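2.7 Reproducibility. Because tokenized structures are sensitive to small changes in the input, we list the exact sequence used for Ribosomal RNA large subunit methyltransferase E, including any N-terminal residues retained from the expression construct. No trimming or masking was applied before prediction.
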Amino acid sequence: MAKKKFSKNWIHQHIQDPYVKMAQQKGYRARAAFKLMEILDTEKLLRPGQFVVDLGATPGSWSQVLRERMKDADGKVQGRIVALDMLPMEALPDVTFIQGDFREDEVLAQLQQIVGDQRLDLVVSDMAPNLSGVEAADAARIQHVCELALEFAQQHLKPEGALIVKSFHGSGFSQIVKAFKGVFERVVERKPKASRHQSSETFLVGRGLKSSIE
Ligand SMILES: C[S@@+](CC[C@H](N)C(=O)[O-])C[C@H]1O[C@@H](n2cnc3c(N)ncnc32)[C@H](O)[C@@H]1O
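Resulting structure tokens (single pass, no recycling of outputs):
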């Protein structure tokens, strides 16, 4: 018999969750929208006219938030949003979507071709690798995608640009923070209210490149 994906307890919590209800009411594709909103508000990041890359974008609630934040007074999106995920994503207006695994060179090359010589204002990554339950292996997977996002940001951000990356407390986290501190002038950790307190999920925000690489 197929293994149950969600426990009864998880389903109960999900139905009761105020962020799930709010997401449904406001038309967001996932409750994760509220995590990004809080981080953008706290950090005063993103405005119309900017260029943003959204890594691990499916089903698309972060891209929805990015669109909203980039609308001008007439409600027209100003700037550019490129989203990437290994899973398909239902199209969103003003969002260029690439389907592929960010760890693969050809997928990265596709993204780099779209970005071209332009410099990004913001890179966001909500990528969460499939976890095996084996702590050391999972820590290595998480660290790997965080480091890839960091390297991409270092190559493509404007000097004053910013990176928001989802990570998890546990083994490997201190190395990720150290790597962030090697790349950015300012690094803060944010745990938005919508991030379940029982989850080890956390977000790192890096701002201001120490030096960019070509
Ligand atoms: C938590 S979900 C993202 C939710 C999204 N931010 C939203 O608000 O709708 C994590 C996503 O990361 C994607 N992902 C994980 N590893 C990836 C990789 N190596 N390359 C591309 N996407 C990846 C998964 O397919 C999944 O859709």
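The beta strands are 50-55, 79-85, 95-99, 120-125, 157-168, 184-190, 201-209.
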